[in-house]
Design brief:
single chain, about 240 residues, alpha+beta, four-stranded mixed beta sheet, globular
Length: about 240
Amino acid sequence: MAQEQITLYTAKVCPYAQRTEIALAEVGAPFKRYEIDLGNKPEWYAPKVNRASKVPAITYGGPDVAPENPSPESIKLAESLILVEFIGDLYPSSNIVPADPVLRAKARFFIEVVSTKFSPNFMKFATGNPEATHTALLTGVDAIQDILPDGAKYAVGDQYTIADIAFTPFWARLNVLVQKGIGAYKDEERKSFLKGLEDPKYAKFNSYVQRLLTRQSFKSTFHEDIVEEVFTRRFGLAK
C-alpha cells in the first residue's frame, strides 16, 4: 500500500514542534514541511489545519496538495506528544514507541516527569519568574536523573524512544540560554546552575544529555541561530 502523505506545520524556534520533527527524522518518513511564522500566522491555518492555531500539526492522507491549501479529505492531528506516538505507530519497526508494554509505560512516565518537573521551570527561568531559581532547575534535573536506568544510553534503556524525543528540545533550548546568557533571569542564577551541574553526582545526567545532543535526528532539526535570535529578542540578556 502506498504511503499516505504527511504535511507537517512547524516552527524552528518551538520545542514542541521539534519533537515531531525528531520523530519523523528517526523513522525516516517522507513528509512536506511548512514553516509557520508564530508572530504572523496565515489566516487559513486555524480554520483549515488546527483550530487551536498552534504548532505542531500535521495533515495525514488525502490528496497530495500544497501545504497552503490543505485538503478537507486529509486527517488533521495536533499536539506534539500525540504526534510523536502517532508517527511511532505508523513506523513500528523504528521502536521509538517501545513494543514492550513495560518499557512503553516507563517511557510515558518519563515524559510525565519531564512535563511536570522540568519543562515548566525552563519557561519560568527564561522569563525571569522568581520561582524558577537555579535550585528549581536542578530539582528538575534531579527528578530526571533519578529515573534514568543505570548503565543504559537513553531514558528507558539502550533504545532511543519517545521519552528522549520529548525531553531533548527543552534541554537543548535551556542549554543555549544558559551558555549564552539569554533570558530575563539574574546572571548569578545562570552561573549557579552551571556550577551545580558540575557536581559529580550529575555524571549520569550529563552523559545522557550529551548523547541526546549528538544524535543526528536532533542535530538535523535544531536551528540554534534561530533559537538564539528569537529568545534574545523576546527575553533579552541576563542582568
